[in-house]
Specification:
Layout: H1 6-19, H2 21-39, H3 44-48, H4 51-59, H5 68-94, H6 99-125, H7 130-153, E1 170-171, H8 177-201, H9 212-215, H10 223-250, E2 261-262
Parallel strand pairs: 1-2
Helix pairs in contact: 1-2, 2-5, 5-6, 5-10, 6-7, 7-8, 8-10
Length: about 260
C-alpha cells in the first residue's frame, strides 16, 4: 500500500493539531507536560539529587537567586494560561455559538498562550532579553482578548441559547441557567485578570515580586499584595468552576434536581 506523500501528511497533522478541538487540547497538554518535565527537575527533591544542576548546565539557564520569585511567577502564568486555553477549547466545542466565533476564539487564544509560554520562559530562565518580556505581555493580551470574545459568544440571552427542554434548569423566561453560569464564569475570570494586571503594572515601581504563600498569613498586607493574592485564589477557583461546568455539560445534567425555575 503506497505511503501518503510527506506534504499532505504534514498538512493533515497540522490541521488536526491546530484546527480541531481534540488536536488543540492535545497540543495544550503536550506543552504543559513538556514544561513540567523540564522545569520540574529544578524542584527541591530533584535539585538535591543534582538533576536540577544538570538541567541548568545542559540548557544554559541563567538563574539568579534574588530573582527566584519573579521566575516562579512567570512559570505559574505560562502553565495557567495553557490550562485556561484547554478549557476554552472545550467550552467553544460544547456551547452554542457560530462556527466563525469558535474559530476566532480558538485561534486567538492559541497564538496568545503559546507566545506567552515560550517568551515568558525564555525571559525568566535564559537571560533578561526584554523583547521576550514584551512578547510575553503581547501573548497575555491576546489571551485576554480571546476571553472578551468568549464572553460575547456566551451571552445567554440569545435565542439559540434558550433552555434545551423542561428538564434543564432555566428561568421563567426560558433562559438556560447553565449558559448563564458559563457566561458569569467567563466575565468573572476577566475581572480577576484585571486584579493581577493592575498589580503587575506596578512591579519595579516600588512594588517587588513576591510569592503569595509567603505573605498570605501576615497580618498586614498592602492593597497591591491583596490584589495579587485575590487574583491567585480567584483564578484557581474559576478554573475549577469551569471544569465542573464542563463536566456537567458533558454528562448532560438534568432531571428533578436541576429542572427548577427561577421565580
Amino acid at each position: 500500500m503506497p505511503s501518503m506523500p510527506m506534504m499532505p501528511f504534514i498538512t493533515s497533522r497540522l490541521n488536526f493539531l491546530f484546527r480541531s478541538t481534540k488536536g488543540l487540547i492535545l497540543v495544550g497538554i503536550a506543552m504543559i507536560a513538556l514544561v513540567a518535565a523540564i522545569w520540574g527537575t529544578l524542584s527541591g527533591p530533584l535539585q538535591e539529587l543534582g538533576i536540577g544542576a544538570l538541567t541548568v548546565r545542559v540548557l544554559g539557564m541563567k538563574l539568579v537567586e534574588s530573582e527566584r520569585e519573579g521566575r516562579i511567577i512567570l512559570l505559574y502564568h505560562t502553565i495557567a494560561m495553557a490550562v485556561v486555553a484547554i478549557e476554552t477549547y472545550m467550552i467553544t466545542a460544547v456551547m452554542p455559538m457560530k462556527k466563525e466565533q469558535q474559530v476566532r476564539i480558538n485561534g486567538t487564544i492559541t497564538v496568545g498562550y503559546i507566545t506567552a509560554l515560550i517568551s515568558g520562559l525564555i525571559f525568566a530562565y535564559f537571560g533578561r532579553n526584554w523583547i521576550f518580556h514584551g512578547l510575553f505581555l503581547f501573548g497575555q493580551s491576546l489571551v485576554f482578548f480571546a476571553g472578551l470574545m468568549l464572553a460575547a459568544a456566551l451571552w445567554p440571552w440569545r435565542k439559540e441559547c434558550r433552555a434545551r427542554g423542561p428538564d434543564y434548569a432555566q428561568t421563567r423566561g426560558g433562559i438556560d441557567l447553565e449558559g448563564v453560569a458559563f457566561f458569569v464564569m467567563a466575565v468573572t475570570t476577566l475581572g480577576s485578570t484585571l486584579f493581577g494586571a493592575v498589580a503587575g503594572a506596578y512591579m519595579g515601581n516600588g512594588f517587588e515580586s513576591f510569592l503569595a504563600e509567603n505573605v498570605v498569613r501576615q497580618p498586614y498586607k498592602d492593597a497591591l499584595q491583596l490584589a495579587v493574592i485575590g487574583h491567585l485564589h480567584i483564578m484557581l477557583t474559576l478554573i475549577a468552576v469551569a471544569a465542573v461546568l464542563l463536566v456537567g455539560r458533558w454528562l448532560d445534567f438534568k432531571g428533578t434536581r436541576t429542572s427548577w425555575r427561577c421565580r
